[in-house]
Amino acid sequence: MVYSNILVETEVSTQIITINRPDKLNALNKETIEELGDAFSEAESNIGIRAIIITGSGEKAFVAGADISEFYQFSVDKGKELSAKGHKILFDLVENLTTPVIAAVNGFALGGGLELAMCSHIRIASDNAKLGLPEVTLGVIPGYGGTQRLAQLVGKGKANEMIMTAAMISSEEAEKWGLVNAVVSQSELLETAKMMAAKIARNSPVAIASAIRSINAGYKDGVNGYQTEIEEFGICFGTEDFNEGTSAFMEKRKAVFSGK
Ligand code: COA
Fold first, then answer.
1. Do 156 and 70 belong to one domain?
2. Mind listing the pLDDT tens digit for each residue in 199-223?
3. Weakly modelled stretches of the chain, pLDDT under 70
4. What CA–CA distances, in Å, run from 38 to 45, 96, 111, 200?
5. Pairing of strands 14-19, 6-11
6. Does ligand 1 come within 6 angstroms of the Cβ of 142?
7. Is the pTM of this model over 0.85?
8. Is the distance from the beta carbon of residue 135 to the nearest atom of ligand 1 less than 6 Å?
9. Residues 21 and 150 in one domain
10. What's the CA gap between 13 and 245, in Å, rounded?
11. Cα–Cα distances in Å, from 62 out to 27, 47, 65?
């Protein structure tokens, strides 16, 4: 597919998606959100892709938020629709992908940028990154899952503080709070994300998909995460990957997973 706002490359079994609007600090306009949704869906449907890295182009920003120029005159209905559509076509979609997504946060991750990082399964940040949800400075609240996922990741108290003060925090602080998994220098960021993707790619894709569904189930209303785990655990026993993984262990060799 041809995209105007993102770059998509494949390295072995890792898909690298780069938001490419550096002049606008990679702000998420409508078209970029749609392109990202398409690119993530395409990666998910490709059996050869075992992990996805999402990053921003340039050295300054991962994503500086939703594109303010597009929504500043919206009505109540249009505002609601903007949020609902974003949830559906990108943010919820990413969280529920069964191909692991690593956000390589290479600079400002603000508003929708931090929300994109938070719906990803894993976050690695560069040491110059600044993270925040500044929406209340604009008279609005985070609308792409930020009020929910930030509280899940850092707890309600810290989420209240970050959202109400609109303050940006450093990547070191974000690591301390559990908002990012690791912090590395900007020059090492992509390589670190690729190494993690390669580590993931060695494991069973069907088991990883079951793990994602089970972990996510714990955060869904009306769903019992433990019950989902029991079901998913059972499902694994009927897969080729389970046969391969356990046979390889017994035969003292490395498993080669088909993802079936
Ligand atoms: N939406 C639309 N455009 C954005 C943007 C956003 N969220 N963030 C940055 N940009 C644009 C700027 O308008 C500017 O465009 P221009 O050169 O055509 O005027 C360009 O990106 C560079 O940004 P600039 O503000 O000049 O860079 P800076 O280094 O002085 O400041 C930030 C960087 C991140 C502090 C600042 O851009 C900012 O506060 N952005 C908005 C953050 C935000 O509120 N996000 C939540 C949105 S819901």
1. yes
2. 999 999 999 999 999 999 999 999 9
3. none
4. 11, 14, 21, 23
5. antiparallel
6. no
7. yes
8. yes
9. yes
10. 19
11. 9, 27, 9
CA of 72 to the centre of ligand 1 (A): 14
- Annotation says 95 is catalytic: no
124 lines ligand 1 (CB under 6 A): no
Residues 228 and 130 in one domain: no
Asked whether residue 46 falls in the same domain as residue 146, the answer is yes
Residue type at 147 in one-letter notation: T
Note the pLDDT of residue 1. 82
Given the CA of residue 110, which atom of ligand 1 is nearest to it?
45
Residues shown for the chain: 260
Q: The CATH number of the domain where 192 resides is what?
A: 3.90.226.10
Hey, which of 19, 25, 60, 136 would you mutate to test ligand 1's pocket, going by the most ligand atoms within 8 Å of its Cβ? 25
In a domain, 138, yes or no: yes
The beta strand positions in 20-172, using DSSP E, are 51-56, 61-63, 101-105, 108-110, 122-126, 130-132, 169-170
Q: Cα angle vertex 7, ends 146, 179, to 5°?
A: 25
| Together in a domain, 148 and 164 | yes
Q: Which amino acid is at 74?
A: F
What kind and span of H or E run contains 82? helix 76-86
pLDDT digits (tens, 9 = 90+) for 28-52: 999 999 999 999 999 999 999 999 9
Q: Which of 35, 44, 135, 232 is catalytic?
A: 135
Q: How many domains does the chain have?
A: 2
Report helix, strand or coil for 240: helix
Q: Show which of 181, 201, 221 is a domain's final residue.
A: 201
135 classed as catalytic: yes
Structural domain for 153, as ranges: 6-201
Regarding whether 221 and 127 lie in a shared domain, the answer is no
